[in-house]
Amino acid sequence: MSATKRDNLIVGLDIGTTKICAIIGNVTEEGIDIVGIGTSISSGLRKGVVINIESTVGAIRKAIEEAELMAGCEIKSVYAGIAGGHIKGLNSNGVIAIKNREVSQEDVRRVIDAAKAISIPMDREVLHILPQEFIIDDQDGIREPLGMSGVRLEAKVHIVTGAVASAQNIVKSCNRAGLDVADIVLEQLASSHAVLSEDEKELGVCMVDIGGGTTDIAIFSEGAIKYTSVISLGGNQLTNDIAVGLRTPFAEAEKIKQKHGCCLASLVGKEDKIEVPSVGGRKPRELSRNVLCEILGPRMEEIFSLVNREIIKSGLEDSIASGVVITGGSSILEGIPELAEQMFNLPVRRGLPQKIGGLVDVVKSPVYATGVGLVVYGSRNSGTLQPFTTNKPDAHLFGSVFGRMKGWFREFF
Fold it and tell me: What is the pTM of this model?
């Protein structure tokens, strides 16, 4: 691989509760080609948060080695995803006077500073500042204020904060695996880059990323992110329900879920049977597949009702005209879109990674939405960020967040 090509490699590292996935993308003039993929089973996280650094480091190394082997390159730096119940999103706004009656880059920086001047507890840090719109004097709906004339500039932004310790543990795990972290990215923000179209973001859409440990929600309207939230329930809960309900080992329950799982009884034939391995060396049993539906259906309904509650809480239920996009590993479960349509009373589709080249057939699955999204995010923001390190947890913050802002402008306009 030539040196120029190597410089154009972006690596997304999806550090999930059930799997760790490394995806290498080569940025070309035509777009992004996926050239390497590596996955390993994750056992060092719970509900999206690192609880065992050693096993997380081991799993990261394994995924990275696999991806390096496929792409024929060496990885030094990654864009890492972050999730978990500690993530909080809020909307804020700031107002300043425009210095020379014409908006400059400095004015934009000052108004974003004013918008993020909110009190944040010491144990939390700002992960993203995502502009929604700018208002100059009384003219709203402005997306690119640079060069415009006016007296008063206002910015509306969405601020995402996370627990400092959780972010540091992700960085520490990557550093110990021999990697620099170019940026930490909210997982649902990353997934949205991979699975949502610009038309959906403009018209209004709710993206639901159902992972192993958490269900992440992002609501877009008028092209900007308006609301983010994380529910601490995911695919692992479904597997656990099967293990308890059918009295079978957890690993076997996971296989049953993947092979036979369905959450809508109307899609299951009356004659359909499944074989269930027993615990403690007892003989396997044969059960109707409907029994599995009766276990998975209520749990998925619970997750969707919690998502619905978040949509109502956001006050944006009338703004998501293009409906709901469901992605993440657990969205593969049969019957998910149909059940979601019944629950939300909106159009629903599964979100697959779009607008990429290379190993498309391999990554065209909701499982890889976050990993591919991290690569897309990295391609739009590379060159604007300072690497994170564990030694100086706060030093990166402003440079990183403002660098992200500039990258965001380039992507948005």
Answer: 0.89
